[in-house]
Amino acid sequence: MRRLSALLDQQVKAPYRTAILLALAAVPLAAYAVLDLPLQHHLAVALVFMGVGVAIARHAPGLRLMVGLLSVALSARYVWWRGTETLIWRLSADGATSLALYGAEVFGFLLLLAGYFQTAFTRPRAPTPIRLDARLDGNLRREVQDGGRPLPSVDVFVPSYNEGTDVVRRTLTGAAAMDYPNKTVWLLDEKRRPEMKALCDELGVSYMTRPDNRGAKAGNINHALARTTGELVAVFDADQVPVRSFLRMTVGYFLDNPKMALVQTPHHFYNPDPFERNLYLEDTVPSEQVMFYHVIQVGNDFWNSSFFCGSCALLRRTALESVGGIAQETVTEDAHTALKMHALGWESAYLAVPQAAGLATERYGYYVTQRVRWARGMIQILRLDNPLLKRGLTLPQRVNYFNAACHFLFGLPRMVYLLAPPMYLLFGVHPLDASAAAIAAYALPHVFLSVVGGSTIAHTARHSFWAEVFETAIAPYIALITVLTAASPKHARFAVTAKGTQLDEASFDWRHAAPNLVIALLVLAAAIATPIRLMYEPLERGTLALAGFWNVYNLVILGAALAVALDRTQRRQLYRVRGDLRLEVRPRDDGGLAAGSAPNGAAAWHGRVVDFSEEGIRLRLTPDSPGGTVTGPLPTEVVVTLASHLAGPLVLDADVLETTAEDGALMVRARWAALSPAQLRRVIEEMFSGANTWIYHAAPPDRPFRSLAEVISAPWRTLSRRLGARSPSPRPAEPAPRRSAS
């Protein structure tokens, strides 16, 4: 298996070899899909394919391409069988439902096919860090084989609309701390706020505004492009804080390749998204966006089609100017800009190492708003600048861009999948004309190997069955917006996603959950009707049982999707960030606020940071000798010395709020005393700027049965913990902060 995996891996190192391999594989796959086999023979072949797929997934996951090919074979056969033997063509409710369901299945198969193409081949890039030589009187240069060359100048743009000062301060502090000499940091303030101008003056960064907000974020960046001169342009959303090494890790791609237009890095989030947060799944189930940033974009890079994601990216100014700046025709200006640059022959790179971290949407309603904007923009691209028809793109680029845009058409098919079983169970509308045995023989192998193939490719980035939950949670809104945008693609407004907000009381988002509540009631009624029909219609028991099983599965998915709408409290204004810095704690002297003011001979405690923010710190004090315990009492006023990885020790005064004994250690919660601007800046840098701070921490590997159990238990887990949180507690329940590897 290892030798076969190595051989296959060698063959797909280059895109042209991969294309030849796929072309050769397509012929037998197509032949098998349309081959006229008796049902028993088909079932025997399907069982063999399923067994081989499971064996590869368990023992040789490097051969994921073979699992994908087997999955495509069974899915293609299912789609062919459905289209040739099961459709109802008469003008009736049966006929309309039959064609709608088949259309949804064909759409799913095409996305499955494109998804395998997009993700089965990867060639992860190694960073190409530049070296700085300070020996030339401060004229820092990069050493290359043909001698030294000046480093390109970089304009760092931070567009801002309505983000709070604390959020923007983090980003500007991180941007200013980037380890690169020839850069200028700009805050592009759309709201023309005096407090933002004062913040820029305090941090020593440049401030720019404009007289109007035409073109939203794209117009804001284009306005800045016309008034700056940097050879390269870095873009960070106002909540995305770069680490010190961002430019050192990305500029080298542009020096080595004059055709390089874009280097994109992942969007990493230091707070949980609504699914992790509201379903209590932090560090258990991967964030919804991990699949895109750690699997799909890596696959895109193999085909030179990595997308610009609007932030955490470095672009060449001449490439932007060649396409007229950031695209303003659509509300997904980032992907559209990359599409235009690729069509002109520019190249892109994707570095799958988090070099910045930002805020994920905290509430279900904000998540809906954000995804609706993305869906609207991608459908605009389909209608106004279709990748399949755009001149200059390679075939793989067309496939990848088209797949990305078409993905957001999932709303209508998802609604069909949810409503087809109730239509049959409640109203007797038949969506297909086939026996229960034939349906099971063709459908179950197709579904089974699709799950296995998806699990093999995603591994730790997406757990089985959660894609259905993510899609179902927003399907009604996506279905509506895609229809409206397809009909009128030029009438769309850019909607800013709210982040960093507080929520004093837990609440159910009735407004955004209402469509799924109605669907859930219909599905529940169908589930109640199923045993009744089984009793009185013995001739249809097989079909009723299959439809009932499908309906119950939909009810499970809807339960998890509705539980997400129960937003948890968020009383902290600033999220804590996990850390692992060594520290020392000493009593504060009578003077109180002088750094390092503990008297000679005073007791000292040692430990590590658990998490911290600009407001305070949680730390763990440990005994100095094995088997010992931390002795107290700990004074209420202390001096905390952090062993920095970035500069010298950071010494801060703190007020102890709470101490708790734990396994011989002492857990301490403290609040910083008044921080000077310089101290506040150092705290932010310690939280965000370390080069390894956001090294990707993968969730546990996917186990489909375990993942299904997590989906099933989501509503119960959410309700039970929410009811438990209502009991008296000295501190409000909050989700754990994101892990940091400082």
Number of spatially distinct domains: 3
What structural class do helix, strand and pairing data support? alpha+beta
Physical arrangement of strands within the biggest beta sheet: 6-5-4-7-10-9-11
Rounded to the nearest angstrom, the distance between the terminal CA atoms is 38 Å
List how many beta strands DSSP finds. 21
| Helix proportion range | 40-55%
* CATH topology group of the largest domain: Spore Coat Polysaccharide Biosynthesis Protein SpsA, Chain A
- The first-level CATH class of the largest domain is given as Alpha Beta
Structure overview:
- It is a single chain.
- The protein is globular.
- The two termini are 38 Å apart.
- By secondary structure, it is α+β, with helices and mostly antiparallel strands.
- It folds into 3 domains: 87-120 and 409-567, no CATH class; 132-360, Alpha-Beta Complex (Spore Coat Polysaccharide Biosynthesis Protein SpsA, Chain A); 577-687, predicted glycosyltransferase like domains (Thrombin, subunit H, Beta Barrel), CATH 2.40.10.220.
- 48% of the residues lie in helices and 14% in strands.
- The protein has 22 helices and 21 strands.
- The strands form 5 sheets. The chain has a 7-stranded mixed beta sheet, with helices on both faces. It has a 6-stranded antiparallel beta barrel with strand order 16-17-18-21-20-19.
- The longest helix has 27 residues, at 93-119.
